[in-house]
Task: structure prediction
Amino acid sequence: MSESHALATSSSSQEGALMDFKLWADPFGIWHLSLAEQTHEHVIAVRAFPINAPNEGVSILSRDGRELLWLDQLTELPQTHRQSIEKCLQNREFMPEITKLDGVNSFVTPSRWSVQTTRGATELLLKGEEDIKRLNANTLIISDAYGVQFLIKDLSALDRHSRKLMDRFL
Result:
């Protein structure tokens, strides 16, 4: 990240008052937060509810895990501010969303799946059915043999072929 990303002003629900803050990444990709005339280095952004409510409840944490800033709603921030927070969140989050299952090599585990995700085509190795976790009726998290977690937000939104393949594992 060679360019600096800046974030200007937002409100903090914890204190109920307008709080000025600035969030940016330096040329080395280290995120900084200026808050009340104090700058914190190596901050991270964390979603309170990353799957069910990704735009609600974002916390900016210090290096030692202490909360420095709480944001109730990302949607209430101006677009440029929201983009900076989301870039900071991307440093911590990596959960590609499966949009289509192209095929599986076997219906017994371990099996290799060819999938289309929001980050492109890839393959994953499913060790066992226990690596498919149902969050609700339509939302699944699939952990592959290498520790990468894949998200299916809405099982019913997958095409017919993909749902038929998924049914064999659920």
